[in-house]
Design goal:
289 residues, alpha/beta, Rossmann fold, N-(1-d-carboxylethyl)-l-norvaline Dehydrogenase, domain 2, globular, 3-hydroxyisobutyrate dehydrogenase activity, NADP binding, oxidoreductase, NAD(P)-bd_dom_sf, HIBADH-like_NADP-bd
Length: 289
């Protein structure tokens, strides 16, 4: 399949490479010359514009920084230049309203489109083990699934347009809540005289067990290897968690959904990032306690 890939950053570069590994012909575009050079090394064909990349393709995949850029890229460069029978797949994490607006604009122009944000970090993007949460019609999902399977371990249809984004921000709000809870609990346990490893041995097999503890423990030297064992380098940056929490707070306000725990987690990450910790892994929030 001939696929255009727009946005070759930390996530997109690995995703595009996996499409090549799966046997697809990938036409790639990014504003960064270095990213295009890496894409070439990974077997992609670099293009000088979005319009050039989408010419004659069967699918368009994008991984872009924010909703405004997504809206601009699709309305100005993808729609009208890509063939009408191409499936449009936006994997960016953006606000629900913009995702639905872009999908609506695509539909009006005769295109099928899905929003397909991901769960999993840079390593999962490179390893082809992402989880995709997909919003769109049944037909659009079916057409996108083949492309997404080449980049992930799970592809789940969340419902109509925008529901992929809704699932993503709800999931990451929950992640922030149980990570901050895990951190404050480990800090309290240590202050009460419990050895962190001993507390882990107890809590990891008790009712307090959760993913942030047993798969991504924020305490260095405790549990499976995690960014905490590398001075909180790599993994999922605090700045990216904060981006998702801001989107969650915006969505909660729009939906009139009370989210007191999500709001508290967002406040903690606002303060932590504001103190210059945006590039540290989000589990470094342990330092707050």
């Amino acid at each position: 399949m001939k696929i255009a890939f727009i946005g070759l950053g930390n996530m997109g570069g690995g995703m595009a490479a996996n499409l090549v590994k799966a046997g697809h012909e990938v036409r790639a575009f990014d504003l960064s010359a270095d990213a295009l050079d890496t894409a070439r090394e990974n077997g992609c064909t670099p293009c000088t514009s979005v319009a050039e990349a989408v010419d004659g393709v069967e699918a368009v995949v994008s991984m872009l920084p924010n909703g405004q850029i997504v809206l601009s890229a699709y309305t100005a460069d993808v729609i009208g230049n890509a063939p009408k029978d191409a499936i449009l797949i936006d994997c960016s994490t953006i606000d629900v309203a913009t995702a639905r607006e872009v999908s609506s604009q695509a539909a009006k122009a005769g295109y099928a489109m899905v929003d397909a944000p991901v769960s999993g970090g840079i390593a999962a993007a490179a390893g082809g083990t992402l989880t995709f949460m997909v919003g769109g019609t049944d037909d659009a999902f079916g057409r996108a699934e083949t492309v997404l399977n080449a980049m992930g371990k799970a592809v789940i249809h969340a419902g109509d347009a925008g529901n992929g984004q809704a699932a993503k921000i709800c999931n990451n709000m929950l992640l922030a809540i149980h990570m901050t809870g895990t951190c404050e609990t480990f800090a309290m346990a240590e202050k009460l005289g419990l050895d962190p490893q001993t507390f882990y041995n107890i809590a990891s097999v008790s009712s307090g067990q959760n993913w942030s503890m047993t798969s991504y423990c924020p305490v260095p030297g405790v549990g499976p290897q995690s960014p905490a064992d590398n001075d909180y380098k790599g993994g999922f940056a605090t700045a990216l968690m904060l981006k998702d929490l801001r989107l969650a707070m915006e969505a909660a306000e729009t939906a009139n959904a009370p989210v007191p725990m999500g709001a508290r987690a967002a406040s903690l990450y606002e303060d932590f990032a504001g103190a210059g910790n945006g590039q540290l892994d989000f589990s470094a929030i342990l330092k707050t306690f």
